[in-house]
Amino acid sequence: MGRLGDNHTNPETIRRRRPGEDKTAFLVTYIRLVSGLNRVIGEVLSWLALAMVLVCFTVVVQRYIFHYSVLAFQDLYVWMNGAMFTGVAGFALLRDDHVRVDIFYRPWSIRRKAVADLIGVVIFLVPFMIVVLVYSIPYVQRSWRIFEGSANIGGMPGLFILKTFIPLFATLVLLQGVAWAFRSILVLTGREEALPEALRYKRHADAPEAVL
After folding, report:
1. What's the pLDDT at 48?
2. Is 70 a domain residue?
3. What digits encode the pLDDT tens for the residues 76-99?
């Protein structure tokens, strides 16, 4: 029993963590969770594009063939458009689908991209999303208090639900922006390999492998 106990408490049998391993695990977990959340929300809300086309087609048929229109339908496809584009903004950031004036960034090395992304997130994205949150929450709260509906007579009820997508947009983009800042930190500390391949920087043929 004594020998077994000695082996159990022997420091050589205890797995030693490398310096920074706990922090790396936290960063990787955060990136995976936030990216997974944005992916699910983005893939679900992207179906609104099909629904929007069908509703718009219905409105056109009603107006030009049957010569009447349901005003609520006209509100509906406009609202779905707003909900979709605000709701999938974090997913677009995850996929790097936002418009980028890509003169210098694309051929840069991975480390240079990580530096640029980290600076962009910290200086521009995070402050702007915080401003959107601070100013949109009272606006949305007022809308919920009166259960605001369409300003058009006979329009859709539930405008307060659509307005809720404004702080949702800011929250999802903020979370994904922080995730990409964490990814940059992993790259700059030489720990990008801890991330799944799908969440790493994409390698382009014309991008040099050299560091800064």
Report:
1. 94
2. yes
3. 988 999 999 999 999 999 998 877
Of residues 161 and 6, more confidence is placed in: 161
Residues 8-28 have a mean pLDDT of: 65
| Range with the poorest average pLDDT among 88-102, 114-128, 180-194 | 88-102
Angstrom distance (rounded) from CA 152 to CA 174: 33
> Does residue 67 sit within a domain?
yes
Tokens of 95: 């996929």
Between CA 189 and CA 171 the distance in angstroms is: 27
DSSP string covering the chain: -HHHHHHHH-GGGSPPPPTTHHHHHHHHHHHHHHHHHHHHHHHHHTTHHHHHHHHHHHHHHHHHTSS---HHHHHHHHHHHHHHHHHTHHHHHHHT-S----SSTTTS-HHHHHHHHHHHIIIIIHHHHHHHHHHHHHHHHHHHHTT---SSTT--S-HHHHHTHHHHHHHHHHHHHHHHHHHHHHHHTT-GGGS-GGGSPPPPTTS-----
Q: Which domain holds residue 141?
A: 22-199
Number of structural domains (the chain) is 1
Inside any domain, residue 103: yes
- 204 domain-assigned: no
Which tokens belong to 66?
């049957």
What is the pLDDT averaged over residues 173-187?
96
